[in-house]
Amino acid sequence: MNSLSELIETLAWAHERTPLANLIRWRDKPVALSIVQARLVGLAHFSVGYIFTYAAFLIASTSGKFG
Q: Which residue ranges run through the membrane (predicted)?
């Protein structure tokens, strides 16, 4: 068993013993993402961060002109 599998096992074990686990029951055991899935998650995270950062820049740079 590699270290990533052990980490996932440890997190799943800890999650099952928290009080919140009684509210939510998983049907399946959590597994690691594939390389493609992880890259898509990273791309989505980067894109959302870029959009929000650019929006904050636009709001800050134009607030003096209009208000």
A: 40-60
